[in-house]
Write a structure and sequence with these properties.
single chain; about 475 residues; alpha/beta; Rossmann fold; 2 domains; seven-stranded parallel β-sheet; 17 strands; about 40% helix; about 20% strand; globular
Length: about 475
């Protein structure tokens, strides 16, 4: 039994994970989203630091997640008695930024925690900085959502695996280590130890666990994977250095778990958003301000965050957005059926098209105002059927957020939020109602430094913008 002064007492499954892994040099935490794998890593860092085993930590996470470590995870779980510095990686070379990064190498006794997004390891600058930090201090290196390094040929994967050789302790954490095939495991586990799965060669690993068939097309021939084998053996190997937890195994979790993934505006989005915001303020400043006027402007800014603008003549102009890739990244981290709510019809159509291209025609169906009544009923029946291939219910909260039972899902993603509190609460309860046996995880995709942050903050504080917006200065909701 671990005796330690935690900032927040771990749940039973988290304590089990700590007991199994705390003193291990390498370990894999295969915990479903919403079960608190970040806390386990932070508690491990704290205990190792207090015992003198490490002086620093290097946290690697996807772009939409890594800032959560600074803003939420570390402040919530790192014990108050630990003197620490959090250094957020950025490739910027301004004097202020370089001074911030230099804190990683200050000669003092505080715990240095470097947080980097996984994309940084595709650049020489990011790799060089991480290498210097790993050589300077005794470090625990953790890859959060480690499916981001499942592609063994990717530059970032090769860099992270190589840098791992410099770390005193290593952790990987993901809710779904196998997203496409068992071969996804190789590079994730190679980061921990080249021999973790019994083979220090991918080709030998593939030969053991994949069924291959030689195919010929014209004058060319190649090996094609037609299935997998010896998976029970592979599972037994994993058990020696990993811990697997599903939400249904955790009896002490709260009924609802909330998390968010941050999305950055593209350069074009930022230009259009700034232009639209200034225009909105100009229109509201010189006219009689009413709630519908303010809320209309908020909706227009939300559209820009989703990567489109609806013109006055009804046409839609689409432009590049990072939100779709963040949605796909979130889906990779979860198992089972998923509800995706989006405010705008254009969002629904874009999501449907993307998911069909990635997961197949039968994997997704939309539910909104134009969906025929018979099709609506069939969609709900198919989604609730565990044997039906329909995995993604993509709906508009104003249409599908009332009355439906969608308890087949334990994950709900808000691609964009409605500012109406009642609609948000009703849509949450489609999965969280009688018949639901699991904790439900709610994931909000939120574009940084935009109106989306303010809408989510209001909803989480149980504020209905539809009735509140004119009781306060309307500018605070837009600026």
């Amino acid at each position: 039994m671990i005796r330690y002064k935690f900032k927040l007492e771990p749940y039973a499954h988290q304590m089990t994970a700590l007991e199994l892994s705390a003193n291990k040099r390498e370990y894999a935490l295969f915990l479903e989203m919403g079960t608190g794998k970040s806390k386990i890593i932070i508690d491990t860092i704290a205990m190792l630091y207090d015992s003198g085993e490490i002086q620093g930590a290097l946290i690697i996470a996807p772009k939409g997640v890594y800032k959560n470590w600074e803003q939420s995870e570390l402040p919530t779980h790192l014990p108050d008695h630990i003197d620490h510095k959090i250094i957020m990686w950025s490739p910027e070379t301004t004097r202020k930024r370089l001074e911030h990064l230099d804190q990683a190498f200050h000669r003092d006794e505080s715990l240095k925690i470097v947080v980097m997004n996984v994309e940084a390891f595709s650049s020489e600058k990011g790799v060089t900085f991480a290498q210097k930090f790993l050589k300077y201090r005794s470090v625990l290196m953790a890859v959060d959502e480690s499916t981001t390094i499942k592609n063994r040929t990717a530059k970032r994967t090769k860099s992270i695996v190589k840098l791992g050789e410099l770390a005193q302790y290593k952790r990987i954490a993901t809710g779904s280590p196998v997203t496409q095939s068992p071969l996804d495991l190789y590079s994730q586990c190679e980061f921990l130890d080249p021999w973790a799965l019994g083979y220090n060669s991918f080709w030998a690993f593939q030969s053991r666990y994949a069924k291959m068939h030689r195919r010929s097309v014209g004058s060319h021939s190649f090996n094609q994977i037609v299935g997998y084998q010896h998976l029970e053996e592979l599972s037994e190997r994993l058990e020696t250095f990993s811990y697997r937890v599903r939400k249904e195994d955790c009896l002490d979790l709260p009924e609802k778990v909330y998390t968010k993934r941050l999305v950055e505006l593209t350069d074009e989005q930022r230009r259009i958003y700034t232009q639209m915001k200034n225009l909105a303020l100009a229109e509201l400043e010189g006219a009689l301000t009413t709630a519908p006027n303010v809320l209309t402007q908020i909706l227009r800014l939300q559209q820009v965050c989703s990567g489109f603008v609806k013109m006055d003549d009804g046409t839609i102009n689409n432009f590049p957005s990072n939100k779709m890739s963040e949605l796909l990244a979130a889906i990779e981290e979860v198992d089972g059926k998923v509800i995706i709510w989006a405010t705008f019809t254009q969002d629904l159509l874009n999501i449907e098209k993307e998911l069909k291209s990635v997961y197949g025609e039968d994997s997704v169906r939309t539910y909104y105002g134009q969906t025929e009544v018979e099709q609506r009923q069939q969609t709900v029946r198919d989604f609730q059927d565990p044997n039906n291939p329909l995995r993604f219910f993509v709906g508009q909260p104003r249409t599908g957020g009332y009355g439906l039972t969608l308890t087949a899902a334990k994950t709900v993603i808000y691609y964009s939020n409605n500012y109406d509190l009642e609609i948000r609460l009703q849509s949450e309860d489609r999965a969280h109602r009688i018949g639901q046996r699991n904790t439900v995880t709610y994931i909000d995709l939120v574009t940084e430094k935009t109106v989306e942050e303010k809408i989510l903050q209001a909803l989480r504080s149980k504020i209905n913008l539809a009735t509140q917006v004119l009781n306060e200065d309307y500018k605070q909701w837009i600026i």
